[in-house]
Structures are given as structure tokens and as C-alpha cells.
Amino acid sequence: MCHVIVTCRSMLWTLLSIVVAFAELIAFMSADWLIGKAKPSNSEDVDNRTGGSQEPYHPTLGIYGRCTRISHMQFSRRDTLCGPYAENFNEIASGFWQATAIFLAMGIMILCTVAFVSVFTMCVQSIMKKSIFNVCGLLQGIAGLFLILGLILYPAGWGCQKAISYCGPYASAYKLGDCSLGWAFYTAIGGTVLTFICAVFSAQAEIATSSDKVQEEIEEGKNLICLL
């Protein structure tokens, strides 16, 4: 018989697992890993609403994507265009970034799988006599290691020609040059830290769902068990 068991610790672990997976996925897909040096507007580029010159803009560069500003002849209007600069894996600007993409993708796949499974831990707490929480915690720890490897290798690719075109001639491995780090890089780091927190917290979720209070509720014949 299926017993639906909901505790504060198990629910918090489930929510954190989902948040971490989405945060890492969004960061990986974003082009805001590097913020390039400012590109000055041309003197003829005039803001039609204010009559003044448009502000300089900062192009951004991701692992496989980029955002830049394109101009339209009519009204001298400029729009920001974002999309992948690499049509396939081999066109990613650096071998280090290719390795980063592989490690991050592997970590994110594991995190998404754990996030999906975590939703069902309210009904199923063990499989093949092993706690799902402990198995998921182990997988989250492995995913965290993949993410760390990807983040360590990423700065090694700052010396590639693509990064130099955005960050200036002084850019090199682990040196930003004229660039700055974007929100996607910090989000990936924050998600990695939360991944290890989730891995540790999974043990608390397992303890909460197998506590004596839960066993007493099961023995009383309750199918829906909610504990604070």
C-alpha cells in the first residue's frame, strides 16, 4: 500500500532539488557568462525619443551563445540579438569550453533526473530496499563534482580567439582582460554550492520520513501522513 509521507525536511529537499536543477539549466543556456568591453555608439546613432546619443552597450558571451547589438538602416535603430554562435559542438570556441559543456551537461542531466524523482518520494521512499533519498543524495554529490570540474575548466578558455574579440588582447587563461563575469557564471557557482547542500540534506529528508512518528502513523492505518 502506498503511503503519502510529507515532512518539512523532505519537502524542503524536494523544492531545493528542483530549484537547483532549473538554476543550473538556465545558467548553462544563457549567454551572460562574460560581459564584454563597452562598444561605443557611432556619432550618427541617435535615440529617436530623446534626441541624444545612445549609450554604449556591452556584448555578452556564453559557452556556446552570444548576445550582440545589430543595427537597422531605417531610423538607425539597434536591437540586441542573442543566439548560439556555434552551430555544432565542434564550433564551440575553446576545447576547454567544450569540456565545460560536457561536464555541465552531465551534471545538469543528473540534477534534472533527481528533481523529477524527488517529486515521487512522497509516495515511494525506497526501491530495491535502498532509500531513494540516499541514492538521490549520492547522485547530487556526483553531479556537484561534474559541475565543479566544468567551472574550473571554463576560465582556462578565456584565451581563445572568441573571448579575446570580446575581452581585448590582454585576455588569457584565467585572466578576464576587459571583460567581467556575468550573472550566469555566478548562478552556476551558487547552484553548485546548493547541489552539495541538497546532497547533505537528503540524509535529513530520509531521517524525517522514517522517524518513529511516521511509523506510528502508518501503524494507525493512515495513508496520508503530514508532519512538521
TrEMBL record:
Regions crossing the membrane: 12-35, 96-120, 132-154, 183-203
One GO CC annotation: membrane
InterPro entries, alphabetized: LHFPL
GO terms under biological process: single fertilization
Record keyword Amino-acid biosynthesis present: no
Subcellular location: Membrane
Alphabetical UniProt keywords: Fertilization, Membrane, Transmembrane, Transmembrane helix
Membrane topology: Multi-pass membrane protein
PANTHER family: LHFPL TETRASPAN SUBFAMILY MEMBER 2 PROTEIN, LIPOMA HMGIC FUSION PARTNER-LIKE PROTEIN
Family: Belongs to the LHFP family.
Protein name from the UniProt record: LHPL2 protein
Encoding gene, per UniProt annotation: Lhfpl2
